[in-house]
Amino acid sequence: MTNNDTARPFRAAVIGCGWIGAGTARDPATVGVQSHAEAYASHPHVTLAGVADADLARATNAAAQFGPCEASDNPAAMLETSRPEIVSICTPDESHAAMLRLALAQPATRAVLMEKPLAMNVAEARDLVDEARQRGVLLVVNYSRRFCPAFRRLRNELQSGVFGRVQQIHGYYGKGIIHNGTHWIDLLRHLTGGIEQASALTAVKPDPWTPSAQFLCAGGVPATLQALDHTAFTLFEMDIVGTAGRVRVLDGGHRIQRYRTVKSPLYTGYVNLDGGQTEEGCLKDAMLHAVGDLISCLTGESAQPACAGEDAVACLETAAAILPAA
Ligand SMILES: NC(=O)c1ccc[n+]([C@@H]2O[C@H](COP(=O)([O-])OP(=O)(O)OC[C@H]3O[C@@H](n4cnc5c(N)ncnc54)[C@H](O)[C@@H]3O)[C@@H](O)[C@H]2O)c1
Predict the structure, then answer these.
(1) Is residue 297 part of a domain?
(2) 258 Cα to the center of ligand 1, angstroms
(3) Tell me, what CATH number does 187's domain have?
(4) Going by C-beta distance under 8 Å and a sequence separation of 6 or more, which residues neighbour residue 180?
(5) Tens digit of pLDDT for each residue in 204-222?
(6) What is the pTM of this model?
């Protein structure tokens, strides 16, 4: 199959048509474009050429909703027939490495948009990054906040000292240090400029894969991450306290609250924080931003993606320092 559509020059395929692959558009609560298939169908330079899922009905539904395109229950056969330049991998965590090798083996592949985590351990992740580099394939990993303008603005504010010197960072997560913890680790890397040390805090551990942790970030900034039982409710937050204000990343990143210092209304000569200002919709169209970032690398507008394979390796290295089994 060849692509004759010059208006949409890039052909894309999605492997795994569940929630993040193709399902979010069915949820009326979803804010903007949050699935890979919808992002490719929405991007002006991309044609969705194929979808695959072990459950053929899911692939067929995705093809009907975001195609028309090839639908298969066999990812290798779908890639062989539809010959995409861009492949999204949206299957469960344990299968990411095998699916990436499948995509890298196809001569047509120029870029892969991987769901996180890149792999289940550091050694395999490093190996995959090396293989992608050797084959000249661009590897982008969907630690989604990095692609959103709201989080770029926040990083710039922190780096330019809008909130003063960062004193402490604290947060909450659940559902595994590799699965969801690496999202928090990546956000910490993104906002602080890097993590220099990480170790487990073993006192609170809702399950063996979900330890609490402490970090030392660039510039000596300390951070702590509290593990919670995700079966009770979902909480993913980061609270950054500086000497001139405070920032809270709430609702998994959908909201950012900024507080500035003010004269205390209660005690003369004291300084407090104000009531805070909330920025909403910070993750709106997260997947469209990720696909746009990838396309800008393929067209040469950007030199490197906002979140590359090396970033995903660094996240797994930090996770492994916290939980050696990672
Ligand atoms: N970046 C983010 O914010 C974010 C959000 C949600 C999920 N994710 C990641 O995306 C991945 C998928 O999560 P989900 O919530 O969409 O899961 P899901 O269970 O809804 O979807 C996974 C799909 O993969 C299919 N599948 C499983 N094995 C397969 C195989 N061997 N070949 C083809 N299809 C196969 C399943 O049938 C299912 O439809 C996970 O790795 C998860 O960590 C990332």
Answers:
(1) yes
(2) 33
(3) 3.30.360.10
(4) 173, 174, 230, 236
(5) 678 889 999 999 999 999 9
(6) 0.95
